Queue: 2 jobs
Job 1
Amino acid sequence: ELRALDIGLRTRCCDNDCEQTIKLAGEVVGGLHQRPEYNLPLQSVKPDLMAFAQGIWPHAMQVSSINENLFQIFSTNFIRRTWLIETEQGSKIEVVLDKGEVVAQG
């Protein structure tokens, strides 16, 4: 149901801290995608759409019904390493290496 509305939902956990992110349908401006994004802390790995402000949702979206029917499509499990490199000119470059797996359900 979220996909039909061009809405993405992600949960992330690192150690014992979890958060949920909702990405709403947006627009393309000058070839760049702009999507409203909202983050909230979670008490567990199970997302809770009802925790978000009701004003963010598209008109007439049945948030409660969708929330009850959420299921996981895939998961990513990885370790992230990050390096911050500073050039002689003072520019900062962030280098990130993710190593892990993507597991699809079914």
Note: The beta strands are 8-14, 17-23, 27-29, 32-34, 37-42, 74-86, 92-104.
Job 2
Amino acid sequence: MIDSKKILTLDSCAKAWENIKPPVRPSKQMLAIYEGYIGDYVSSNKDWGILGSTPELRSLGAKYASSVCCLDLKHEHYYSFSTLCRQHPKESFLQCNWLSTGQAEKFNYVLGDGSTSMVSLHQYDDFLNSIHDLLLPGGYAFLRIQIANTNPFGNPSEVVAWHRANHPSQPIFRTSSFYLQILWQDANLGSVNTEIYCRELLALFEAGIITSDEYQELMSSITPYPISYVEQESFEAFCAPLFTILDVRFPNDFACSNLCPVYALQKK
């Protein structure tokens, strides 16, 4: 049972999620894509595994699955986000590492929204092997990834200028954080170099290019896990030995939605 002393912290976490906007939180069109895949590929009375505790995916599971299991290293988000979703009567939590194989539990479907962006590119083989291992024969994975095929911006000032000209009424994090982060994707790390990212954001603020509020907003994207972007061709090459790519669809209801395809994969 969860420690009662953590209730306030978990409540704060849930409230923070409610204020998060796409692309971190699934947009309406992202959810429509998942539902489209469910309509195309999901049979009734099947078991789902969800990478993490994304409340929107859990609500879909409550609607369509025979059981739902949320898989993550820590349980805090699972309990916190339970207040934000429709829970399946047979929903459970399994503490596990997404990069490890050998879990006893197997699923017909595995869903992950942005999960690939939380591992280094150097860990993609392990990550996809783990997803493959979690699936029953012929099972499906629906994964929203973050891609970095090309970045139309050569420096952070160009990103901010584009935001000012095209999306002045929207939060800068929602329109520009992905484009800024991609500028500091480090090939050696296989992920965004957050040390340089933080330093460059501070330089933008000190130069008067972004405001104090915008600086704080962009800094809120810093996480304890890697932030990575993958070239679409590379992702498909990673998938090829393990999965058949059935479909790939893009949302278009937020500024950087062209970087957020949702893949439908079937286990080979």
Note: Residues 156-219 form one domain.
